[in-house]
Amino acid sequence: MTLEFLEAWFRRRDEPAFRARQVLDAVWRADSRDFDAISTLPSQTRVDLDRAFRWGTVADTELTLADGGRTEKALHRLDDGALIESVLMHYPAGPDRRERNTLCISSQAGCAVGCPFCATGELGFGRDLQTAEILDQVRSAARRLATRGRRLTNIVFMGMGEPLLNLDRVLESVAALNDPGRFGLGARHITVSTSGVVPGIRRLTALGPQFTLAVSLHAARDPLRDVLVPLNRRWPVAEVVAAAREHAATTGRRISYEVTMIEGVNDTELDADAMAVLLRGTLAHVNLIPMNPVAHTPWSASPMAAIERFAERLRRDGLPVTIRRNRGQEVGAACGQLAADRAGAPPVAAVARRRALLETSSAAALRGERSSEALPVGVDA
Ligand code: SF4
Questions:
Q1: Span from the CA of 228 to the centroid of ligand 1 (angstroms)
Q2: Which residue, judged by its Cα, is nearest atom 5 of ligand 1?
Q3: Measured from the CB, is residue 126 less than 6 Å from ligand 1?
Q4: Over the stretch 218-232, which tens digit does the pLDDT of each residue have?
Q5: Which residues are catalytic, by number?
Q6: For range 320-349, the mean pLDDT
Q7: Which one, of 106, 148, 155, 99, lies nearest residue 336 by Cα?
Q8: Do residue 136 and residue 208 come from a single domain?
Q9: In a shared domain, residues 145 and 197
Q10: Residue 67: inside a domain, yes or no?
Q11: Does position 166 have pLDDT exceeding 90, yes or no?
């Protein structure tokens, strides 16, 4: 809730509006647990707040640690039973950098885009998250960090879901995260990713810089991107990059392009050339990320040598490139893996059909052929 909303609530009850500030401070303080603990409020007000509002939207959170405790995966169960995931990554301070604690959060339960290298894509779409459900992932992580004397430094919307298909609520969430009277995290520390929802990118451009925009690119050629990011059939790669270029030019903020590296699929010389040509001269940074192992695909991560060759090709055209390390593989930290495990194994025949379709469509894409058959969303669709 916003301050204005809460102030109006108190005014209707003939209570002073400044109580709204006391409530919001407590809601966002990492050590508060419930309305009853807000000792600055009269006890009847605490009871009434508890009757009128929920303190949190997460019914239950299950935590799993990996990378020697530096990666913490949270599986959150919401009130209606929907499962969503967030991942907290700790990066210790080094000689030339400060400690970072980055939280990757979900914007939807499941996802309708259906990228075949992604466990969330295999689940299919559940529903949009409410603003509070997005923000409660942040409150949960901030509380856990506070007990270790740490605080969140970065938030990325790269968990389950396509943020720009739930844009109103994502924008409300970013406003709350940004607001010094609520979470108070600077816009430069927030990244929202999209698989290429062009109208959403244009809307963000019109709003001005709110956060760093990341584009999940994965391939620069349409025949291959049709396979890897099915939304490409609706908004082809040239349109996506044109909208992103305009966003960078208007806001002055560099676009982060994300590429999941899949062996023999999108790590070829042909693909590196195509990407260098597509992105050169743009205000961009490219992140190459080895694919996380995901059940039900025939693919695996590119070897490091192939990723380095790819990076070199992009650098020759003046593009800044970072090769990212995978985090939390032993706990299935790629988005949707835990929720997919809970959903149970899909039918064997459906998995075999999907694998065969992926193999033929990616082989056709390598030959430059654009398939007319779209991959169904969800393994057993
Ligand atoms: S990679 Fe992102 S957009 Fe694609 S299916 Fe997974 S969650 Fe959705």
A1: 10
A2: 121
A3: no
A4: 999 999 999 999 999
A5: 85, 335
A6: 73
A7: 106
A8: yes
A9: yes
A10: yes
A11: yes
